[in-house]
Structure formats: structure tokens, C-alpha cells
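Sequence and structure are kept together here, with a separate record for every protein. An example record follows, reproduced without changes.
>
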Amino acid sequence: MFGWDADYFRPERWLLEDNNKHADQLNTIRRTNKIIFGYGIYQCLSKPIAWLKIIKVIFKVPLLRRLI
């Protein structure tokens, strides 16, 4: 249903197949990731909470998989 590599983390699978556009898309993604939370006085107030949630998911998901 999701392809032969559904069990592997490969975010580039969603990029276009054209190699020239591939590099442009990666650069756009990187620039966007830098501005998500903002900087300085315009920084997102919930950034620390978001990072705690991200870290929690990263460490808990493998632990839950072991229990299943």
C-alpha cells in the first residue's frame, strides 16, 4: 500500500524525481525549517514545549515498539 520502503525513514521519497529540482526542494525545505520557530524577540513562545514533545516521541516510540 505504501511501497516497498515504507518501513524506512526516507523523507526524500516525497521530493520530485527530477534531480535538478531535487536540490532546489532540499534547499527550500532547509530554509523553511530554520524559520519555523523564528529568532530573537519574535521567537515562538512554545518552542521549548515543542522540543520536549519531539524528544519525548523520539525516545518513547522505540520503547513502545519493544513492548508490542
Observations:
- The mean pLDDT is 74.
- The chain has two helices and no strands.
